[in-house]
Design goal:
mainly alpha, Arc Repressor Mutant, subunit A, 2 domains, three-stranded antiparallel sheet
């Protein structure tokens, strides 16, 4: 999936590795995490597969940078991936853990859900930055149609995080009631 995310970004515009990482951080990162090392490893694999092409650009007073562009083969790969039906993963590590939390005390579990809620409240606030990124990239790309889909992912992420916060409140309330 990471390869398709990179191909999708390069389909918008040629970028160097740093620009890919920054664009990823401001757009895809709220629903797909990737480390710097993973992105650079994937860039090498994509180039070796012929899906992208890298070329060195000289810079005055700075080290040369490698710019990547998507190839025709990369566009075909991206189009094929976009045409495939996607099954939503049923694997949710958090729920696997919650299923077995009965092995811990009520107080430990209240603390668990409070910590989870706090982390999601921080994530929820990060969607302000995501909205600003969508606006920025919409202006950069001059493509309102593509930008609309970035907005769809931001909306989904915001709703999912809000649901998790509400769910944590329900779990905490149930645990506090059990403690009585």
């Amino acid at each position: 999936m990471l390869k398709h995310g990179i191909l999708g970004l390069l389909n918008y515009n040629d970028m160097n590795g740093y620009e890919i990482l920054e664009t990823f951080r401001h757009s895809l990162n709220h629903f797909w995490n990737a480390q710097k090392s993973q992105v650079y490893r994937e860039l090498t694999a994509l180039e070796n597969s012929g899906y992208i092409q890298g070329s060195w650009v000289e810079q005055d007073g700075k080290p040369d940078k490698k710019m990547y562009s998507i190839t025709d083969e990369g566009r075909v790969e991206l189009a094929q991936w976009l045409s495939k039906d996607e099954k939503e993963s049923v694997r949710t590590p958090l729920l696997m853990k919650v299923f077995f939390l009965g092995e811990k005390s009520i107080d430990e579990n209240i603390a668990f859900f409070m910590k989870l809620k706090a982390a999601n409240e921080i994530r929820y606030q990060a969607f302000v930055e995501a909205d600003q990124s969508q606006d920025y990239y919409s202006d950069e790309l001059q493509d309102l149609y593509r930008s609309m889909f970035w907005g769809f992912t931001i909306s989904y992420g915001r709703k999912r995080v809000k649901m998790t916060i509400e769910w944590c409140d329900e779990c905490i309330a149930a645990l506090k009631e059990q403690k009585k």
